[in-house]
Amino acid sequence: MNVMQLTTGRSQSPPEWIPVADPGAETAVLRPALQEAIERVLSSGTYILGDEVAAFEQEWAAYLGLRHCVGTASGTDAIALALRAVGVGRNDEVVTVAHTAVATVAAIEVIGAIPVFVDIDPVTRCIDPDLIAGAVTSKTKAILPVHLYGQPAPMEPILAIAASYGIAVVEDCAQAHGAAIDERKVGTFGHAAAFSFYPTKNLGALGDGGAVVTTDSAVAQRLRELREYGWRERYVSHVPGVNSRLDELQAAVLRVKLPLLDQRNARRRSIADRYRQSIVCSDLIAPTRIPSTTHAMHLFVIECEDRPAFEESCHRHGIRTARHYPLPIHRQPAYAGRIRGGERLPMTERVADRIVTLPCFPDEREDHILRVCEQLRAWSNLPRHERQNRTAHSCLSMEG
Ligand SMILES: Cc1ncc(COP(=O)(O)O)c(C=O)c1O
Known about the structure:
Layout: H1 3-8, H2 23-44, H3 51-64, E1 68-72, H4 75-85, E2 93-97, H5 102-110, E3 114-118, E4 140-143, H6 155-165, E5 168-172, E6 180-181, E7 184-185, E8 192-196, E9 210-214, H7 217-226, E10 231-233, E11 236-237, H8 248-257, H9 261-278, E12 284-285, E13 293-294, E14 300-304, H10 307-316, H11 346-352, E15 355-358, H12 366-381, H13 384-392
Parallel strand pairs: 2-3, 2-4, 4-5, 5-8
Antiparallel strand pairs: 1-9, 6-7, 6-13, 8-9, 10-11, 12-14, 14-15
Helix pairs in contact: 2-8, 3-8, 4-5, 4-7, 9-12, 10-13
Bound molecules: pyridoxal-5'-phosphate.
């Protein structure tokens, strides 16, 4: 007997799993163009910092409306190098959030700087600008807002606070390619901004990759040195740098995908809208629409009163779910108890205990979208006591 039979008591085969993300589906759609791009790199004989990286850097900067883009080996490196390039160093404090990917905080620590946490605004689920000033000390050198899930953080108040203390702003845009505030793209507000091109991102490579963007020529120059051993000219290091270069193959792949980014983001938003319309009960909460912002909808994350029961019900219907992230950083074993601010983050705690990520990506099949909508509608229509019963008597899911 398979797990689904145990779950349903029926003998028919289980429905196909609907993944939370599916980079393979995008690759399948773009395969001929990707193969052509890869072939171009193979034939070029240059595999590191050649024409493809230079062209992608120029195209990504132009898309954002900025002057400089510097490719890096990952989004984590992009954050670390951006912080160094704007002047953050050992023992300097960087104000950020605990409700993010570990990478945000790992990047601060890898350069010897000290993360400090402030709570999130439960509506945007990004940093609460009203709490930043309370975390600033004489050691604070930067604010690192994260545009989480693709929702732009409130940049205007963040920039005002940074200006009043004379500190830098570095945006973590790893989940927000193409997101905007009043038509102005995220990544263009801070002194520098970091992007990740991890394969599941809205603009994803076929491996690791990242980039830092900036309008500041001096910051861009420092980044170019830092990413390659501190070289100003070949083999002569002027600062202690690292090896963190975007490679030619990944840049060529990103150049195929970039022209489709806006259209694919619009598709994500339209799927999200259909999910929203299917949620009609108060114990499932869809992400709030924030006026004047364009959500990149990297992840569709709802909040749920009765999370275990809802997840179990999704799994029973073949819908994979995720938690971004199951543990906020101040509760992760590597960070617990040692980061200032982590002792009081009530909104972070509340959101972290309720979030569920549902499948939402441009190549999601129509029948799968309908199944997710149906699940949201069916859950919404269950009488409240039934939903609670399901928590108490939760049975085996497809995953067991
Ligand atoms: C918010 C956030 N910051 C930083 C990163 C790091 O990016 P990468 O995986 O390319 O190092 C990620 C990616 O997972 C992320 O989601």
